[in-house]
Amino acid sequence: MTLKEVAEILDAEVLTGHEKLEEIEVERVAAADMMSDVLAFSQPRILLITGLNTPQVPRTVSIVDGVGAVIVRKHMVPQTTIDLAKALGIPLLHSKFSMFEACGRLYIRGLKPVESLS
């Protein structure tokens, strides 16, 4: 599934990375608000779904070599977060869905969770 399809499914506003949406393939999704969990348990090429809207989101996605991030639940995303995502080349989307609903919509469309490390 492309990131463009993800944006459509989640009725998401694309904040950065418009030019990459059709190129980026998404296969796995991680959902977390604690970026330490993402750093500890993530895998490369994941799409991060989070309720956190701080600059830590694009930083973390960059560190784990993720394909992008979807910020959920928030009414707005600070410009500092958008600017950093743009500088790092991280596609950033914003959806008003809850994390639960966003994950569910993507799961029923065939996206998989991060593989268990146990």
Short description:
The chain is α/β, with parallel strands linked by helices. It has helices spanning 3-9, 35-41, 56-63, 79-88, 99-108; strands spanning 13-16, 28-31, 46-50, 68-72, 92-95, 112-113. Helix 3 packs parallel to helix 4 (79-88).
The low-confidence runs, each spanning 5 or more residues with pLDDT under 50, are none
Element-level helix/strand string: HEEHEHEHEHE
Widest sheet: strand order?
Answer: 1-5-4-3-2-6
CATH class call: Alpha Beta
Largest sheet: 6 strands, mixed
Strand content: 15-25%
- Averaged pLDDT: 94
Q: What shape does the CA trace take?
A: globular
Q: How many individual β-strands? A: 6
Estimated structural class: alpha/beta
Q: What's the architecture, going by CATH?
A: 3-Layer(aba) Sandwich
Number of domains: 1
Number of helices: 5
CATH superfamily: HprK N-terminal domain-like
The Cα radius of gyration reads 12 Å
Helix content: 25-40%
Distance between the termini: 27 Å
Return the CATH topology.
Answer: Udp-n-acetylmuramoylalanyl-d-glutamate--2,6- Diaminopimelate Ligase, Chain: A, domain 1
Descriptive report:
This protein is an alpha/beta fold. The chain has one domain (3-110): HprK N-terminal domain-like (Udp-n-acetylmuramoylalanyl-d-glutamate--2,6- Diaminopimelate Ligase, Chain: A, domain 1, 3-Layer(aba) Sandwich), CATH 3.40.1390. 36% of the residues lie in helices and 20% in strands. It has helices at residues 3-9, 35-41, 56-63, 79-88, 99-108, and strands at 13-16, 28-31, 46-50, 68-72, 92-95, 112-113. A six-stranded mixed sheet has the order 1-5-4-3-2-6, sandwiched between helices. Strand 4, helix 4 (79-88) and strand 5 (92-95) form a beta-alpha-beta unit. The longest helix has 10 residues, at 79-88. The protein is globular and about 35 Å long. The mean pLDDT is 94.
